[in-house]
């Protein structure tokens, strides 16, 4: 009789454990402190044809020589180009990436991926 009671209690406990859903944990703090906003800086429309062309070239822009790299596609599917700016007065080289977010729209320089990257902003007064 004792073994039968133990077997019934064990069977009922096993069925109750399998039939009930486990308690879901609730987070007390956010996984990400802040949501990063994408920081695109739109280039003047005069550069759209130059960046949309498949050829690589060097262009003089103000006090900088800009080397336009090969056309490639980002992970999001946007056409992008690597831009390398070298100042005529300094030996420093700045790397940027420009992407075109919509076909036919202006190209935009993306923010640096690494915290210590520096960028050159191209601004035209219209």
Description:
The protein has 126 residues and is of the alpha+beta class. The protein has a domain at 41-109: Roll (SH3 type barrels), CATH 2.30.30. 18% of the residues lie in helices and 28% in strands. It has helices at residues 2-19, 48-52; strands at 41-42, 57-61, 64-73, 79-87, 93-99, 108-109. Strands 1-6-5-4-3-2 form a 6-stranded antiparallel sheet, with no helix packed on it. The radius of gyration is 29 Å and the shape is rod-shaped.
Key structural traits:
alpha+beta; 6 strands; signal; single chain; rod-shaped; SH3 type barrels; 18% helix; 126 residues; Common-antigen outer membrane protein
Number of helices: 2
**Known CATH architecture of the domain at 41-109:** Roll
Distance between the termini: 97 Å
CATH fold descriptor of the domain at 41-109: SH3 type barrels
Q: Tell me about the biggest sheet?
A: 6 strands, antiparallel
Integer-rounded radius of gyration = 29 Å
Order of helices and strands: HEHEEEEE
Which stretches are low in confidence, meaning pLDDT under 50 for 5 or more residues running? 35-39
Fraction of helical residues: 10-25%
Measured by DSSP, the beta-strand proportion falls in: 25-35%
Overall body shape: rod-shaped
Mean pLDDT: 76
Protein name: Common-antigen outer membrane protein
Signal peptide: 1-21
Keywords: Signal
What's the topology here?
Elements: H1 2-19, E1 41-42, H2 48-52, E2 57-61, E3 64-73, E4 79-87, E5 93-99, E6 108-109
Antiparallel strand pairs: 1-6, 2-3, 3-4, 4-5, 5-6
Brief synopsis:
With 126 residues, this protein is an alpha+beta fold. The chain is built from two helices and six strands; from the N terminus they run H-E-H-E-E-E-E-E. A six-stranded antiparallel β-sheet has the order 1-6-5-4-3-2, with no helix packed on it.
